[in-house]
Amino acid sequence: MQRVHVNRYAAGLTLAVLALLPQTTASQGYPNPYRIAEGWAQLPNGRPMGAVGKTVIDPDGKHVWAVVRCERLEDQARFGDECRDSKTDPIVQFGPDGRVVKTFGGGMFIWPHGIDVDKDGNVWVTDAVATNRTPKGDTRGQIVVKFSRDGKVLMTLGTPGEPGSDAKHFTSPSDVAVAANGDVFVADGHGNDGNNRVVRFARDGTFMKAWGKSGWGPGEFHSLHAIAIDSRGRIFVGDRGNNRIQIFDQDGKSLTVPWTQFGKPSGIAFDNKDQIYVADSESDDVQNPGWEEGIRIGDAKSGWVHSFIQFPWGDPRTTTGNGAEFVAVDAEGNVYGGEPAPKRLQKYVRVRP
């Protein structure tokens, strides 16, 4: 009898421990403490919302910067070059009320994708256009541009219109993140034909180093889609094609086993309480069976997921690419999702602690 009692206790303890471990299956069971603020983002003069790329919060903790890809093109064949023929400004700053404060960048990009704002308020934007989407002779794309907060070009990394994999070239750079000391980290490689590497530059644009290649092992990537820096200075890379987040120090040393508990990561952000927010716009029964699209929220130190903003309109049976592909969180804990396919900038208001 004693043996049975011990075994039952051990089994119960095992289950309790497993319940505390980071989830490796879909996160539908987590609570959602948010509600949608319908119609929050409002473009001026009746401008329809184009595909929304990455979103990020201004250093003031209130204003929201977003990539809005020019025209609202309904032709699915144009997904990937929406700004090719447009002079409309794709870089947009929204006020806390959802109204536009300023715009800039018209005509400079073919497919603006990633964005970050450094501590001085400068705005960094990537053009991740694929090489086969670049018109012959076009000198745009394959760059990261640093703007002043008023839209003046201050620096360009990469060689416009020229893909490559050396210190002066990118191939479809997905995202950019700027560290507290001003160093710049670029997730270089959107899609399977990208470079699948992280590139580090000094604040003056001097190339420092690069790490990564195509593959499935530690420090290897497939379609790295997001890059973000937490309060400890760690580099988080959304290795979307491999369904995982990889974490490095700023010299490219791997710090932990990859995190798979956040689904198929497209966007990564952190709040002022060391919580991590991960947007998953791709999980479905084709690309990542058993998972659902949405925004998973957890502890940035342990990686334990505790909340899930489920995308309510997706069809998990097909490869839809709906929902938030990018995510940001303001100083009050409100969450913003950039949704390219539905063409929405969604605001989620926290309603429960």
> Could you tell me the number of beta strands?
25
Q: Label the structural class.
A: mainly beta
Task: Return the CATH architecture.
Answer: 6 Propeller
Cα Rg: 20 Å
CATH topology: Neuraminidase
Number of domains: 1
The helix/strand series, from N terminus to C terminus, equals HEEEEEEEEEEEEEEEEEEEEEEEEE
Uncertain residue ranges:
1-27
Beta-strand portion reads 35-45%
Shape: globular
Distance between the termini: 45 Å
Write the CATH homologous superfamily.
Answer: TolB, C-terminal domain
In DSSP terms (H or I, runs of 4 or more residues), the helix count works out at: 1
Percent helix, as a range, is: under 10%
What multimeric state do the chains show? Answer: single chain
How is the main sheet built?
Answer: 4 strands, antiparallel
The CATH top-level class label: Mainly Beta
Mean pLDDT: 90
